[in-house]
Amino acid sequence: MTASAHSFSAHGSDQHPVVMVPHVNIHNFCDNQQTGEVLQQAAMDRRMGHAHVSIQLGGLAAAIQVYQHQPTPNVLVVETHAGREQLLAELGKLAEVCQPTTKVIIIGHVNDVILYRELMRQGISEYIVAPVSALHYIESIASLYKDPKSDPLGRIFAFVGSKGGVGSSTIAHNIAYRLSGKHSVETVITDLDLAFGTAGLNFNQDANGGMIEALGSPDRVDSTLIDRLLTKLGGKLSLLGGPCQVDREFAIEAHSMEIVLNALRRSVPCIVVDVPNVWAPWVRYTLINADEVIITATPELASLRNTKNIVDLLKQARPNDHLPRIILNQVGVPKRPEVSAADFAKAVGITPELVIPYDPMVFGTAQSNGQMLFEVGPKSKSAEQLDVLADILSGNNKTAPKSGKFNLNEIFQKLPSLRKK
Ligand SMILES: Nc1ncnc2c1ncn2[C@@H]1O[C@H](COP(=O)(O)OP(=O)(O)OP(=O)(O)O)[C@@H](O)[C@H]1O
Ligand SMILES: [Mg+2]
Questions:
Q1: Residue 380 Cβ contacting ligand 1 at under 6 Å
Q2: Which of 46, 184, 227, 269 has the CB geometry, 3.0–4.6 Å to 8, for a possible disulfide?
Q3: Which residue has the least CA distance to atom 28 on ligand 1?
């Protein structure tokens, strides 16, 4: 499989994942406090995890001073408030102390295309007009190291349940089915539940355990190996999963997961990762580094607490990314006291993107037939809801998750009957 179907990515800038910045030294010289704060925020971003970053004030003048006595880094970012003439003059001085291999990015306060062209002619790698955003800054640096001949990277959608059995896998598989079908995007389901995964069953296919081979020898993982390990599920959909057996134990390393997911990103435009309900370094890695995280939860207190904990972790670890999307599933189980969607939203701080009813007929039939909800109940509320999410994830109907107000204690106090159960 190649990345030739990357038309999926052409729906807007947030559909292009910003890639990791490689292991490089980046020195920043800001000319005002506000830029310094944004760059601090960028330096903490997950995509800058491999880079060594220093930030100081003083702008272009300070940079010229500092590099009289020390070699310039891989990337030098300097902010300046200077106008065209002064900027060009000062850059002449910087050029005298700057090594030829150093890539220079200017953050300027003059929005002038002629100046931009002049700077590019002089060998400046990028000119960013202030105010700069953290993501724009990261993207500018990452693109300095991007192979211009390579296809855009694929997007990773990580689906995780707030507790066991909430329906996360079923939803992940149906979304992958929809993305590869209706939206015609080459999609791989990566089932990380190596012993108990249900992706094979849900598509009526035997498991081949390809994921074990990939994770077991990460040094060998490339597009060719990935291609060989995939099980075709029909159309543009494939599966990379575990053997779904318990005859051996397998320890997954976060580092191996990083290699496999990055290889997948280079091979295919859409990767739906079915993350099991366990907590381990590689699960944390996968969620933090996905382009989108979709948490499926049932309307119960344990689900609510766990969702809130995952959301808080992700908010803190990925301040420059989309908020996780929340699906409230199995709503309306007869006789079960439930947390309302509104209370759930208030407690977690995010409005659920979808509310899917408890529908044992459609879900049960799909499961026993090895079919998708879209096949057994295309007109069902669940299929309709999942169609909306597939549209959003494909970029056809962008809606950012809405923030709600958080007060978990207040919600718990409102639900004494639930606490007692
Ligand atoms: N809305 C729903 N109505 C009725 N049944 C549902 C609904 N959602 C999921 N189910 C059923 O719940 C069961 C568990 O679903 P699934 O395996 O997708 O959950 P999971 O969160 O991935 O579980 P696990 O923790 O085992 O990975 C399945 O039998 C599925 O058909
Ligand atoms: Mg599952």
A1: no
A2: 269
A3: 167
Distance CA 3, CA 31 (A): 41
Contact present, 141 and 18 (Cβ < 8 Å): no
Q: Which residue's alpha carbon is at the smallest distance from atom 11 of ligand 1? A: 167
Does 154 sit in the ligand 1 pocket, CB within 6 Å?
A: no
Strand, helix or coil for residue 340: coil
Residue count of the chain: 421
Q: How far is the CA of 159 from the centre of ligand 2 (A)?
A: 9
- How far apart CA 237 and CA 340 sit, in angstroms, is 35
Strands (E), 182-253: 187-191, 231-234, 237-240
DSSP label of 14: G
**Whole-model pTM?**
0.86
Mutation test residue for ligand 1: of 160, 162, 168, 170, the one with most atoms within 8 Å of CB: 170
Q: What is the pLDDT of residues 113-170, one digit of tens each?
A: 989 999 999 999 999 999 999 999 999 999 999 887 777 889 999 999 999 999 999 9
Return the amino acid letter for 299: P
Condensed to tens digits (0 to 9), the pLDDT of residues 374-399 reads 999 999 999 999 999 999 999 876 55
Domains of the chain: 20-144 (3.40.50.2300), 155-420 (3.40.50.300)
Beta-ladder partners of 57: 30
User: Residue 154 is which amino acid?
Assistant: G
Pick the ligand that lies closest to the CA of residue 360. Answer: 1
Under DSSP, is residue 282 helix (H, G, I), strand (E, B) or coil? helix
295 contacts 324 by C-beta, under 8 angstroms:
yes
Query: Would you report the helix, strand and coil content of the chain in percent, each value rounded to 5?
Result: 45, 15, 40
